[in-house]
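Let us practice reading a record.
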Amino acid sequence: MQGLETFDLSCNHLSGPIPPSMSSITSLSHLNLSHNLLSGPIPTTNQFSTFNDPSIYEANLGLCGLPLSIKCSTPNDQKHKNDQDEDGGYMTWLFISMGMGFPSGFWVVCGSLALKKSWRHAYFRFIDETIDRLYVYIVVHMPRLKKKIERIGVHG
């Protein structure tokens, strides 16, 4: 990609920052990143310092820096903002959904078992039969397992 002269990535629904590795394409003379979801500072190294037309970054509301009129915040402000936005919003909704989801699911299951006698009897009958099947399986297969262990020489 080092010999690339024209690069048009407009209208591709790209998101996130402009990769710093793009500034290593030194032969780039035409670039179009408009109408995407890009964010963060526009690189100012190598060829990016020659792209003075703001229209190549048009409709990327998260971009900042020259040639746009939107100034970038300091790295500390940006880091604090990103930490708060990414973790705070996500974690808040995670805890809200857990706080509402667990009791709802719990009471749907336990409430239906408490209110419907036939469902309660069917549920506990299923549990009892499963425990009985597991016990029979263990009792039937334990002697065979002991023989295999003795055959390979493991003594306990």
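A brief commentary: The helical segments are 75-115, 117-152.
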